[in-house]
Amino acid sequence: LIALQVSIIMTAHILFPKIDAVPATLSQTILKNLLREELGFTGVIVSDDLDMRAVSQMFAQKGTVAKAFNAGCDLLIISRNLPASNDDRIYHIASDFTDSLAQGSLTESVVTQSQARITQLLAATPQYPVTMLKEETFQQHAKLAIACSFP
What we know:
Blueprint: E1 8-10, H1 28-38, E2 44-49, H2 64-71, E3 75-77, H3 87-103, H4 108-124, H5 135-148
Parallel strand pairs: 1-2, 2-3
Helix pairs in contact: 1-2
């Protein structure tokens, strides 16, 4: 897929203990060394969901956001699918990002490189005008849904 110039790849929180002791999402060895340098991937790397149990506790700790970006992630996904996931969790992750920048564990250079990759992806993505469906379409769909529902 990299040879075909795929533009975005999602990490997995899988462990490869013979390669690195941390999940792939946080692994510089996997994301930077292998994916970017050895395989030549230049597109956007997006994390898998940070609410997944494999990493959710890690992202409750300060400094983990910097580890993800320094490993090679450009975007982080938080789907809020855990019962404990709430606005406080999102604010914690956002403040971890800004704190990491302020403390220097995450550099502007890393963020600028991620931003450039994301900008390039967006520029290459076709943009279509947003249109609103007519109210009658919603009503027709509602009637179909009711007609198809099980007793």
